[in-house]
Amino acid sequence: VTQIIGKCDSITITEHYQVGSILYLDQVMEAVYGNDHRTEAMTRMQLCIDYVEIIDFLHSWNPNKTYVMCDTYSLEVAVGQFLLTDKLRLVLNDVDYMAVIDNLRKKKITCGKREQFDLMAPEMLKPSQNKPWTIRNNFYYDEKIEIWKIPNMCNYFLGKENSMMMRQLSEIHSRCKNIDPRKRPSAREVLHMYKNINFSKCN
């Protein structure tokens, strides 16, 4: 998470990252690595690991509550929630819209009214496009909506030139996209798979 250096009245001062936004990740990677594609691929995979580590932390650090980012419903918006440090590591920067699952009461969440976007899990969508949204016909879900997003986010970090690595991830990513949220893996399970990637197959 972005490091807080200090506060002055209502102003919060955070650590400055020169690289900053990951919206221009490809340009950053080209500038840093040039033709060193193997090292670049390892750094890109580390960003996938960083991302899932953040998700796993939000899901598991409090045994009584599970935190879910509600404002990552599209790839463009989700990418904007993170920053790239000077060491090319991923940090979470925007946490102003967190939903909290009460694990003790088994109470699920809703992220409010949403139209269809590219990172929205099926259980988040309106059952009928002809039926207007109201709080009464709203529906609820859990942290598995974030597991659905993992393949999209990781593919963004990997870029278009890492097809061999994507093939290694295809099985776990397919499970993340299971239409039944109960059959999707946990963030920790995805993290375990990511950390066991064989880079010798990515030449």
UniProtKB/TrEMBL annotation:
Subcellular localization: Endomembrane system
The protein's topology relative to the membrane is: Single-pass membrane protein
Molecular functions per Gene Ontology: ATP binding; carbohydrate kinase activity; phosphotransferase activity, alcohol group as acceptor
Q: Does the keyword Disulfide bond apply?
A: no
The biological processes this protein is annotated with in GO are:
protein O-linked glycosylation
The superkingdom listed in its UniProt entry is Eukaryota
Q: Does the keyword Lyase apply?
A: no
**Name used for this protein in its record:** Protein kinase domain-containing protein
Originating species: Pinctada imbricata
